[in-house]
Design goal:
The complex is a heterodimer of chains A (130) and B (93). Chain A is of the alpha/beta class and 130 residues long. Chain A is built from 6 helices and 5 strands, in the order E-H-E-H-E-H-E-H-H-E-H. Chain A has one domain: Rossmann fold, CATH 3.40.50.2300. In chain A, helix 2 runs parallel beside helix 3. The chains are: A alpha/beta (130), B mainly alpha (93). Chains A and B meet through helix 1 of A and helix 1, helix 2 and helix 3 of B.
Chain lengths: 130, 93
C-alpha cells in the first residue's frame, strides 16, 4: 500500500507538531505541515507538495480554512483532493456549511493524539455525508 | 528519551500561562479586542484536550460560545481564569 500524503495546515505550532506526530503513528501516513494557507497554496502551486488529502484548520489569522479550500480548488493538483476541516467545538455546528463548501468531512478539536490517524481515515472512507 | 508529547504539553502550559495573564487583565478592565479574545479562547478550546486538559477546552469552549452568542461572558471567563490558574504552577493542576 502506498503512503497517504497529508498536507496539514494550522497556524498553531504546538498543534502542528502534535498532529504530525499523531498522524505518523500510522506508518503509512506522511505529513507535511504548513503554518498558513498561503504557505500551503505556495507549496501546491509550485509542485513542491502533492497531497492525497488536506487537513485544514478553520480559524486561522489572515486566510481562514474555507478561503484556503476555495483557493485549493483553483489549483490543478488539488482541484479534486479531499479536504477535511479540523475545528474547535464552537464551530462544529457549522459542519453543514463546511460540507457545502466541498469538504470531505469535519474533525472536531480537541483531537485525541492516539486516534487522529484513525479518525482521518474514517472520515475519508465515509465521504461527505452530513 | 524524552517523550515528545510531554515537551509539547509543557509548551502548551507555558503558553496557557500567558493566556491566563491576558484573561486576568481583561477581567480587570484592560479589555481585549473581540477578535483577540475570540482567538485566545478558540485556541484554548481546540488545544487543551489534545494535551490532556479537557477542563481547559471545556471552559474555553463555554467562553467562546458566550462570546459568539452575546451570552453572559464574565462568569465563563472567570471559570476559564480559575481553570488556567490551577495549572499555572503544576501540570497536574
Amino acid at each position: 500500500m502506498s503512503d497517504l500524503k497529508v498536507l496539514y495546515v494550522d497556524d498553531e505550532p504546538d498543534i502542528r507538531e502534535v498532529a504530525t506526530i499523531s498522524l505518523e503513528l500510522d506508518p503509512a501516513i506522511k505529513v507535511r505541515a504548513a503554518e498558513s494557507g498561503p504557505q500551503a497554496l505556495e507549496w501546491v502551486a509550485s509542485g513542491d507538495c502533492r497531497p492525497d488529502v488536506v487537513l485544514l484548520d478553520v480559524m486561522m489569522p489572515g486566510m481562514d480554512g474555507p478561503s484556503v479550500l476555495k483557493a485549493l480548488r483553483l489549483l490543478e493538483p488539488t482541484r479534486e483532493t479531499p479536504v477535511v476541516f479540523i475545528t474547535a467545538r464552537a464551530q462544529s455546528h457549522e459542519r453543514h456549511r463546511f460540507l457545502d463548501l466541498g469538504a470531505a468531512g469535519v474533525i472536531t478539536k480537541p483531537f485525541d493524539p492516539m486516534t487522529l490517524a484513525t479518525e482521518l481515515r474514517a472520515v475519508m472512507a465515509a465521504g461527505p455525508v452530513a | 528519551m524524552t517523550d515528545p508529547l510531554q515537551l509539547l504539553r509543557e509548551r502548551f502550559l507555558a503558553r496557557a500561562r500567558g493566556d491566563l495573564a491576558a484573561v486576568e487583565a481583561h477581567l480587570a478592565g484592560e479589555t481585549l479586542a473581540f477578535d483577540n479574545l475570540r482567538l485566545l479562547v478558540h485556541r484554548l478550546a481546540g488545544a487543551g484536550g489534545t494535551f490532556g486538559y479537557l477542563d481547559i477546552s471545556e471552559a474555553a469552549g463555554t467562553a467562546e460560545d458566550r462570546l459568539l452568542t452575546d451570552g453572559d461572558l464574565e462568569p465563563a471567563l472567570i471559570e476559564l481564569r480559575d481553570t488556567l490558574a490551577r495549572y499555572a504552577t503544576s501540570p497536574d493542576g
